[in-house]
Design a protein that fits this description.
Organism: Spirosoma pollinicola
Number of domains: 1
Strand content: over 45%
Oligomer: single chain
Protein name: Membrane-binding protein
Number of helices: 3
Distance between the termini: 114 Å
Structural class: mainly beta
Largest sheet: 13 strands, mixed
Shape: elongated
Radius of gyration: 26 Å
């Protein structure tokens, strides 16, 4: 009886739970199908057609990379049958991370982030099925916010703001059902006197 209690102890239960949950799970398809082939962008034969990456007239499956003249990595990203897959990363020449984008079957999916050479954030986007979905933020090089908006199915939906580089508000409105309510920064009227030529 004491042995039965010991076999059901907390560590044993955790190990059993872990094995039960993960032993039959398939591997992550984004990483398991990408061949371990690494090809530089400097090599010939690259073409992008209809949103797919080709090399020597064959849909490319593998990893594409780009190096700077100093042999530092500027880009690395995976492709499966010509479609971008997983995380694609780019760096500035000063080795500062420039952007991280995530793809599923060639479409942007999830969070997309970018940075300036200084390391300050340049953008933050959320995507679903290659369309804006959720928050979209952009910043100026000086760190000031430039844009803040909400999206649904690729369309503006909810509060939207744009600012000048000095922080002064440029637009501030709410997008609802295809219409904008608030200060859009657009003058919708035309002065008819501007188009009338007066001759004496």
């Amino acid at each position: 009886m004491a042995n039965q209690v010991l076999s059901r102890s907390r560590p044993g239960q955790l190990v059993a739970l872990f094995l039960g949950l993960y032993s039959c799970q398939p591997a992550n398809p984004a990483t398991s199908v990408i061949p371990t082939i690494y090809v530089s962008t400097e090599q010939s034969g690259w073409q992008k057609r209809e949103g797919r990456m080709w090399r020597n007239d064959t849909l490319f499956s593998g990893w594409q990379y780009q190096l700077s003249p100093a042999r530092d990595t500027l880009f690395v990203g995976a492709f499966n049958q010509g479609q971008a897959e997983g995380f694609h990363r780019q760096w500035h020449a000063n080795r500062q991370l420039k952007e991280i984008r995530h793809y599923q079957k060639g479409w942007q999916e999830g969070e997309q982030r970018g940075w300036f050479e200084s390391g300050r954030q340049a953008f933050f986007y959320q995507f679903r099925n290659d369309q804006y979905e959720g928050i979209r933020k952009e910043w100026y090089r000086n760190g000031q916010p430039a844009l803040y908006g909400h999206y649904h199915n690729g369309q503006e939906s909810g509060a939207q703001q744009q600012l000048f580089a000095n922080g002064v508000l440029k637009v501030n409105y709410v997008a609802r059902n295809g219409r904008n309510y608030g200060f859009t920064g657009v003058k919708n009227c035309v002065n008819v006197w501007d188009s009338i030529a007066i001759s004496h």
